[in-house]
Design goal:
CATH superfamily of the largest domain: Aminohydrolase, N-terminal nucleophile (Ntn) domain
CATH topology of the largest domain: Glutamine Phosphoribosylpyrophosphate, subunit 1, domain 1
CATH class of the largest domain: Alpha Beta
Number of helices: 9
Radius of gyration: 24 Å
Distance between the termini: 52 Å
Strand content: 25-35%
């Protein structure tokens, strides 16, 4: 039975032996074998055309060698073409490896004009050296949020952003994407979109028929907040239903609802690939942009990456970091409105970080600045005693850090700093 304000759309070998000095031909044989193994282990989408391409190249190399042809063209086939295919294979493999994202949420708040995205998946980003797991989410401040998942391609996401900026509604955007896929196959894609058409919010989703099961998406609204929840490679519909229930019943602002939604998917094997690891997923993220933010620099970002077999539940770790940085206690309007007037710059930062508190009479209030690393560990705390404070970050390792500014017991601003 459908809840008020919610509607559900259902889409019901052995390794080759390596010599002491493997050449490109050996690498291609190894790649051919590795692709088959990885397809079976990580449930990657079928890619027979690519395997066939490698097979034809290997056959050509073998023919060339058997004929003992020493012409330059034969050498070019054996070396340069093999290098190209090996590069293409590596690109293809990595794109497939993190292309099948599993469960996520997008939402827009018609009262605050905030837009947000959150998600998780069973991909070991640490192993493939992907630092920022928020790539599937695209926040366009004061316009909307787009999650592109299941065989993710950046150009489809870019096209979705362009359509949103052109004024298309979420429903129009998913229809356009389904008809204009970059590679001509939208059947393996999944999209979750929420946005504004002027003052009119709405949401939409798309789950291609060839996305990996179980796949589905839910759209709905509550208290002026419009959302889409989507997932593929799921344990079942119960994961999406639980996410929606937690999201709709959460207290606090949009970020708090998104965090609660992810908690709804904290089930072992929510992404079925993670059942052997006894966790729901291997990475999780949450981000919210205010209407005055710049694209690519949302006011709030938090994420977690965990390694396979670490037995660390990323949603629990994300909740710990989130709770240390963000309060879900309702703030009065005068406190929450201060955030947009506080400036933290430059970002990226190379040494000195400036905090402009001109909106606050610091002399009469206790203002705390706290800096955390990506593990949620506190690495700096300062009491700001004047309206224009400068903080020396020299000595920190290069990377991403999160800050929180508190006025008394209230958190009035938080965000992310890139230290270079």
């Amino acid at each position: 039975m459908l809840r008020e304000g919610s509607k559900t759309a259902r889409s019901k070998v052995k390794s080759p032996t390596l010599g002491a000095r493997p050449n490109l031909r050996t690498c291609l044989f190894t790649s051919y074998w590795s692709l088959t193994v990885l397809q079976n282990k990580y449930f990657l989408p079928s890619c027979y055309s690519f395997v066939e391409l490698i097979s034809h190249n290997l056959l050509a190399i073998k023919t060339c060698n058997d004929s003992q042809n020493s012409l330059p063209s034969c050498y070019k086939l054996d070396s340069m073409n093999s290098k190209s295919l090996l590069f293409l294979f590596t690109f293809f493999l990595l794109s497939r490896a993190f292309g099948q994202d599993t469960f996520s949420i997008v939402a827009v708040d018609s009262t605050t004009r905030e837009v947000g995205s959150a998600g998780a998946s069973c991909i070991d980003l640490i192993a493939i050296n992907i630092v920022d797991p928020t790539f599937i989410g695209d926040l366009i401040p004061d316009s909307g949020a787009i999650n592109s998942q299941a065989s993710y391609l950046p150009n489809n996401q870019i096209n979705a952003r362009a359509r949103m900026r052109a004024g298309d509604s979420p429903k129009q955007i998913v229809q356009w994407l389904a008809a204009n896929d970059v590679n001509g196959d939208s059947s393996i894609r999944q999209y979750a979109i929420a946005g504004f058409n002027g003052t009119n919010p709405s949401s939409a989703g798309y789950s291609g028929p060839n996305c990996m099961n179980y796949k589905n998406h839910i759209t709905g609204n509550i208290a002026g907040i419009y959302y889409t929840i989507a997932g593929n490679i799921l344990l079942g519909q119960q994961i999406l239903d639980s996410m929606e229930y937690k999201f709709r019943n959460a207290k606090g602002d949009l970020a708090c609802r998104l965090m609660a939604g992810l908690q709804g998917a904290k089930v072992v094997g929510a992404d079925t690939r993670c059942a052997p690891y006894s966790v729901s997923s291997l990475f999780a993220f949450l981000m919210v942009a205010q209407k005055t933010d710049n694209h690519g620099d949302p006011s709030y970002v938090v994420f977690v990456r965990t390694a396979a077999n670490s037995k660390i539940e990323p949603i629990d770790t994300l909740q710990k970091k989130f709770s240390s940085q963000h309060s879900c206690v309702q703030k009065n309007a005068s406190i929450s409105s201060l955030s947009k007037d506080i400036q933290v710059f430059p970002n990226p930062c190379q040494g000195m970080l400036n905090v402009d508190l001109n909106a606050i009479e610091v002399g009469e209030n206790l203002v705390n600045f706290t800096l955390y690393n990506t593990l949620g560990e506190k690495i700096m705390h300062r009491i700001l005693s004047n309206e224009n404070a400068s903080l020396d970050l020299n000595g920190l390792k290069k990377g991403i850090y999160f800050y929180r500014i508190d006025l008394g017991d209230e958190t009035i601003k938080n965000g992310m700093i890139h230290f270079e």
